């Protein structure tokens, strides 16, 4: 077992604790010095740790509608902003790659005294979770795969991500919002819930150009994780939006068929950001799965 504590720069540079009643009880928020970057995190609740990893080019606030419900049900929900996204920053020498994102997440667990957790990865967070599993499977008590994929990117998808990187470099992070929001949310949601569009747009705009390029490169060059699926031995939940056009349900079905004993829940009326768009349904699916597998 690798000593991840020694790999991390084990100094908390700032931590804010909110002492409040209700769902906000036990909330901590701060910045951690991790592998040369400053990683923003939120930890809410007490109980079984659950680390949630956001997708491209978002932040931990993607899970804003999940933290309260899951914390109230007995979980310690931890969300992070990958380096260069949200409030996190990264050195110019290492804006991010798959191995670094995985090492950052494991180092955050170290600094927050979390020996093992249910690890959930949305979209790009899925390949990061797979890399964490290949590196340190003993850190997992469960796995949640959210609108993600185990296959490597094909030629068409590779060029889509290269185009995203080029657009961010030329026109700035805000230019990616129109490209991505049409796939993040269903047409119905975009038409009737403009606040949801504005919220996700704001998150997209927070990323740095370097992070947008690094994340797009990770997605374009991600390894084939299909062989990894058969090695997963912890309880696994696969969540999918029925209207996801980025990684459609067929990919989730393939993952379910390759992970022994895994469960697949397809959420109607949801697209790529199902965890946010249909948060109540996603929360219920997670809680039912966790109860079934004695994870809390």
TrEMBL record:
SUPFAM superfamilies: alpha/beta-Hydrolases. Keywords: Oxidoreductase, Peroxidase, Plasmid, Signal. GO terms for molecular function: peroxidase activity. Gene3D superfamilies: alpha/beta hydrolase. It comes from the Bacteria. Residues 49-278 form the AB hydrolase-1 domain. This is Putative chloride peroxidase.
């Amino acid at each position: 077992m690798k000593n991840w504590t020694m790999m991390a720069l084990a100094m908390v540079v700032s931590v804010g604790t909110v002492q409040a009643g209700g769902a906000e009880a036990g909330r901590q928020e701060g910045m951690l010095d991790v592998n040369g970057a400053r990683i923003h995190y939120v930890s809410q609740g007490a109980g079984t740790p659950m680390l949630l990893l956001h997708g491209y080019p978002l932040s931990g606030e993607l899970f804003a509608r999940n933290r309260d419900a899951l914390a109230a049900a007995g979980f310690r929900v931890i969300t992070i902003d990958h380096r260069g996204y949200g409030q996190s920053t990264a050195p110019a020498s290492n804006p991010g790659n798959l191995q670094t994102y995985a090492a950052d997440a494991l180092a955050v667990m170290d600094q927050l005294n979390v020996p093992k957790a249910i690890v959930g990865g949305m979209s790009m967070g899925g390949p990061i979770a797979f890399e964490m599993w290949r590196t340190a499977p003993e850190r997992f008590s469960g796995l949640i795969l959210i609108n993600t994929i185990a296959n490597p990117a094909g030629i068409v998808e590779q060029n889509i991500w290269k185009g995203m990187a080029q657009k961010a470099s030329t026109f700035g992070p805000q230019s990616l919002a129109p490209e991505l929001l049409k796939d993040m949310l269903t047409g119905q949601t975009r038409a009737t819930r403009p606040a949801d569009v504005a919220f996700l747009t704001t998150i997209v705009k927070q990323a740095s150009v370097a992070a947008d390029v690094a994340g797009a490169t990770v997605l374009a060059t991600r390894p084939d994780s299909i062989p990894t699926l058969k090695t997963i031995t912890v309880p696994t939940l696969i969540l999918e939006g029925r209207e996801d056009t980025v990684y459609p349900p067929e990919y989730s079905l393939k993952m379910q068929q390759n992970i022994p004993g895994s469960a697949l829940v397809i959420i109607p009326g949801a697209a790529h950001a199902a965890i946010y768009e249909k948060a109540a349904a996603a929360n219920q699916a997670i809680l039912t799965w966790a109860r079934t597998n004695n994870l809390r």
